[in-house]
Amino acid sequence: QVQLVESGGELVQPGGSLRLSCASSGSIFSINAMGWFRQAPGKEREFVTAITWSGGRTHYSDSVKGRFTISRDNAKNTLYLQMNSLKPEDTAVYYCAAGTVYYASDYSAQSKYDYWGQGTQVTVSS
To answer: Which residues of the chain register pLDDT less than 70?
Structure first.
């Protein structure tokens, strides 16, 4: 089992920045990738970004590429999401996820992630 706890979500103005954190514990050795997904009001949950836990390869959705950066600190078992140039359409509950992914095309597939955090609310509004 892997436990995930997100933090860092808050209200921020358009154009602002925010960093989310996801602390993980438990059987970390059982997973090889972690990612961030988000769910806006009235919409389905969607892929944001993912990173391989060992090699640090990253994958981004087109909607956040160039604005968001995913990173991880293996020593602290913590995943981060640096979000810059935030837009109102980035408003959502952001979820941290961990799983086993072998193919690049699968990093955005929610079914490949076995463990999920409770989510943290990010609101972008003036």
So the answer is: none
